[in-house]
What we know:
By secondary structure, the chain is an alpha+beta fold. 21% of the residues lie in helices and 32% in strands. The protein is built from 7 helices and 21 strands. Strands 13, 14, 15, 16, 17, 20 and 21 form a 7-stranded mixed beta sheet that branches. Strands 4-5-11-6-7 form a 5-stranded mixed beta sheet, covered by helices on one side. A 3-stranded antiparallel beta sheet has the order 8-9-10, with no helix packed on it. Helix 4 links the parallel strand 18 and strand 19 (253-255). The longest helix has 14 residues, at 271-284.
Amino acid sequence: MTGAPALRFAIFCPGFREGCAIRSDLRRHAPRARRTAVALCAATPPTQQTVGRSVTLVGQGVHGGRSARLTIAPAGADAGVVFNVGGAAIEAHWSRVDASKLRTRLAEGGVSVSTVEHLMAALAALRIDNALVLLDGDEIPAMDGSARDFVSAIDEAGVVTLPARRRRWRVVKSTRVSDGAGWAELRPAKAALHLDVEIAFASPVGRQRLSLDLTPETFRRELADARSFGFLGDAERLWRENLALGADLDNTLVFGERGAINPRGPRFADECVRHKMLDVVGDLALAGAPIIGAFRSYRGGHALNIALLEAAARDGALTPEFEGVRHENSTAAARSLSGAIG
């Protein structure tokens, strides 16, 4: 898929016989948007949102070790999040994932963008439905290893509303995937996205668990500052696999035998599970719309998160609806959504 004026992409809609197509003109950049910044509050906005203006970040990729320049730009209603890498467009959708070991990489037509999860988490948590991400490079800059700088960039850009109702996925039946050592599942819930993540590593990280309802406030307070983490003993093996080539103490929380070796130590006592939950938010954002349901994982990771989205789509565990439409009217919402995007 190349950067044509009009980008057509499909989102699989469980409950429908075929995928639905959304036609989006990424050059519109929200022409009818109300140019009034809106507050990022706990109440979910009923209409779609984009950033108010373009904002740029520069940094180094944590795995490739190469510098990259990233610009988050406004996009029109129903565009979704789309990466533009060297003129080629890659939609932010789980069906475009081609690698999930220690990061989430998207690919389309021989072009790829790696380590999208922290940026996607910030966009999703701050309820940015549509954005064009221009990247000079092939990996999202790691910044400090957390989502802090992406949140700050979105705050700097501001948020505007768009003249289109917000879509979302509702979990209507439980789905679970496992790789033998760990598992991840989605279950129905009445409102919002509830997250429950548990990790289990050898000492000094050990076993940690965290649960919360995702809102802009909880993301900012509990998750955004949590950094990627790793173990000093794994470094040489990862380098041989062309991973973690750009990792250092400025963008990774590194553990030795006795604990973190970073001069200032961890930001939270349980920073590792917080970061794992941040990754979950970013991976689930590849559903293409917010999810209403309960997520739970034990010893999970990017591969299980993406496998869970694929299984949920395949098994009809998600049904589409519009923001503000009551759950009991979800069938009518699905029909309306089908007509709007088909």
